From TrEMBL:
GO molecular-function terms, A-Z: ATP binding
Organism phylogeny: Bacteria, Bacillati, Bacillota, Bacilli, Bacillales
Source organism (scientific name): Metabacillus sediminis
Keywords, sorted A to Z: ATP-binding, Nucleotide-binding, Transport
Gene3D superfamilies, alphabetized: P-loop containing nucleotide triphosphate hydrolases (3.40.50.300)
InterPro entries for the chain: AAA+_ATPase, ABC_transporter-like_ATP-bd, ABC_transporter-like_CS, ABC_transpr_LolD-like, MacB-like_ATP-bd, P-loop_NTPase
Domain ABC transporter: 2-233
UniProt name for this protein: ABC transporter ATP-binding protein
Length: 233
């Protein structure tokens, strides 16, 4: 479902090149809950941004659900991101001038699929425990509530895959556990989740840990990976 082939990413660093990703090959099956771990600077966010099409690789190919996203134009990529995947960030990225309800409705405004947007947004917010707060603005709810609203928004167009970059990084343990429970429920419903985290305890709760160091995958010992012989470095 998610497959990368020898992806590389370089950033200009003064007059030198910094290799943020070095020939990364990963394969993720449908309905897996995968944690990408590693120290700060190991390339986790860079990898996630490539998988989400937020950024483009220098070399290599990325196929997601049969779409070769590395070949898409900027415009097509933006459309694909809105309809085919959900993205959750550490700092929530909610629009402060919109209520939680309006934030969740927003991705549906850009979707060709006709839906009762308000009804669906209310249903999503209810499902993450925010039924009472739908008309509040992000600045007036807690961090945990902001992240739950952001997750509801990421599900607006019912994407099969969710990408999350340190989704619990700004939350206390209790709120982090709430988010994890939400993710488990989504996995149960058939979604695929790829979550970047440097929290070892959280990563151990997922199905599979992909560990990165210096832009490389140094460990990938998921059950599916070992069955396919794709594990190891
Ligand atoms: P992580 O998410 O694991 O902390 P990142 O993927 O953010 O790591 O960064 C990996 C490496 O790439 C780091 O050395 C970082 O400084 C560098 N890097 C990331 N983004 C940029 C950028 N936009 N410009 C230059 N260097 C970057
Ligand atoms: Mg990061």
């Amino acid at each position: 479902m998610i497959e990368t082939a020898e992806i590389e990413k370089v950033f200009a660093n003064g007059n030198e090149w910094h290799h943020a990703l070095k020939k990364v090959n990963i394969k993720i099956q449908e309905n897996e809950f995968v944690a990408i771990t590693g120290k700060s600077g190991s390339g986790k966010s860079t990898l996630l941004n490539l998988l989400c099409g937020i950024d483009k690789p220098f070399k290599g190919k990325i196929s997601i659900n049969g779409t070769e996203i590395t070949n898409l134009s900027k415009r097509k990529l933006a459309k694909w991101r809105n309809s085919d995947i959900g993205i959750v960030f550490q700092s929530f990225h909610l629009l402060p001038s919109l209520t939680l309800l309006e934030n969740v409705m927003l991705p549906m405004e850009f979707s060709p699929i006709k839906r009762n947007k308000k009804h669906r947004a209310l249903e999503l917010l209810r499902s993450v425990g925010l039924a009472e707060k739908v008309h509040m603005f992000p600045d007036y709810v807690s961090g945990g509530e902001k992240q739950r609203a952001a997750i509801a928004r990421s599900l607006a167009n019912d994407p099969p895959i969710l990408f999350a970059d340190e989704p619990t990084g700004n939350l206390d343990t209790e709120n982090a556990n709430h988010i994890m429970e939400l993710f488990f429920r989504l996995i149960h419903e058939g979604k695929t989740i790829v979550m970047v985290t440097h929290d070892l305890e959280l990563s151990k709760k997922t199905d599979r840990i992909i560990q990165m160091k210096d832009g490389m995958v140094i460990e990938d010992q998921g059950p599916l990976a070992s069955i396919q012989g794709a594990g190891g470095s």
